[in-house]
Amino acid sequence: MLHTSPPKTPKFLHLHAVVEELAGFGAKIQLCSRNEVELNKCLEEWRIKGFNVTSSVCDVTSTEQRLKLMHDVSSVFDGKLNILVCFTLLDKFVVFRFSIWSVL
């Protein structure tokens, strides 16, 4: 899973490249973002390229949204996600406890 802000801006272009690199190796990728419009644009581009990328709208600073995300990801990937990568802007300090991520 990648969490990102709009990846087409120069500051986040490398995140877009990370998704394409991993998907090119056949990885199953879950992407989450707070920006549904940008997320859908990226998903369409990756579907055209044949990449296996799914998505969720999520603000990882919200415990409730993180828990829902983990449940959704676990369901989509039958508990077998290849990689979990979380890129966030550090405008807020967020503590992720192992118990939250262990639901995968």
Automatic annotation (TrEMBL):
Q: Where are the transmembrane segments?
A: none
Instruction: Name residues in a coiled coil.
Output: none
Kindly indicate whether the keyword Oxidoreductase belongs to this entry.
yes
Is Isomerase there in the keyword field?
no
**Domain of life, per lineage:** Eukaryota
Fetch the Gene3D superfamilies from UniProt: NAD(P)-binding Rossmann-like Domain (3.40.50.720)
Keyword list, A-Z: NADP, Oxidoreductase
**Xref: SUPFAM superfamilies:** NAD(P)-binding Rossmann-fold domains
Write out the GO MF terms. Answer: oxidoreductase activity
Its name, as the record gives it, is Uncharacterized protein
Organism whose genome encodes this protein: Saponaria officinalis
